[in-house]
Amino acid sequence: MTASAKPDCLALCALPATCWSRLEERFTVHMGPAAAERMAFVRPMAERFRFALASGGGGMSGELIRALPNLEIVSCFGVGYDGVDVAAANERKIPVTNTPDVLNDCVADTTMGLVLGIMRKLPQADRFVREGRWLQGAQPLTTSVHHKKMGIVGLGRIGKTIAKRALGFDMQVAYFGRNRQPNVPFDYHANVESLAAWCDVLVVITPGGAETRNLIDAKVLKALGPKGYLVNVARGSVVDEPALLEALKAKAIAGAGLDVFADEPRVPTEFFGLDNVVLAPHVGSATVETRKAMGDLAVDNLIAVLEGRAPLTRVN
Known about the structure:
The protein has eleven helices and twelve strands. The strands form two sheets. The protein has a seven-stranded parallel beta sheet with strand order 8-7-6-9-10-11-12, with helices on both faces. The mean pLDDT is 96. By secondary structure, the chain is of the alpha/beta class.
């Protein structure tokens, strides 16, 4: 196949190098600019784009989807797809795909890392040694993780994998979701406040989007209480960030481990001076192995449609 015969693919995110090479073998790839310049970039060749690659957290607006008259698929590099206007895709029966399952283990590992990090204060311990404070005395005691209660907000594929990790620490597990799940060996709470009041550490792994915006609000944080911890590995939009900052400052909760924020990568500087929060730059799935698996699946979905097959992991 010559380069000129390859169909055009609009790419709104990067992929690992080996995955990008696979993409370029089958498509003529056009890397889209920043959101503010995107429509101007697309309009002159809008009819050429049959394929689109996007990050799950952003990029594929309804305006952009409607501007591409021959679009056949939006392939998301990520398990989340709240950054894609799925309703606009549905209007034209355009499949939207994501990359489920291949990142479950890494996100679960990161979650437990944040649980250990904030409850055992491991980043603070590192600083304690580096700054020479150990010479003046021992670091203050921290909180045990084992036998504590973990509440999981969103018991999907990743949530179940996190629960498996928690059981390895002899933790009790309960969950909240839109519906009670059959054949799940964990107690179900009908609302987040009830789950927060029950648990020692509240883990958020629900999808983002309008339905879950600010789901973790001041009322939930109050229910979590001064001995409770919050860990967010979902989307920053799920937590009311100003309310969380106030709770951390007032020590209305014991602490938080955050991998996601409301306006990434712009993290409120108020977090930086707090000793009861552990911050990570959205690295839940950020390992070489997992990102390659995600990239390969995103490309496989595009190739499936190119070859006239059904996409592998359609979400709509």
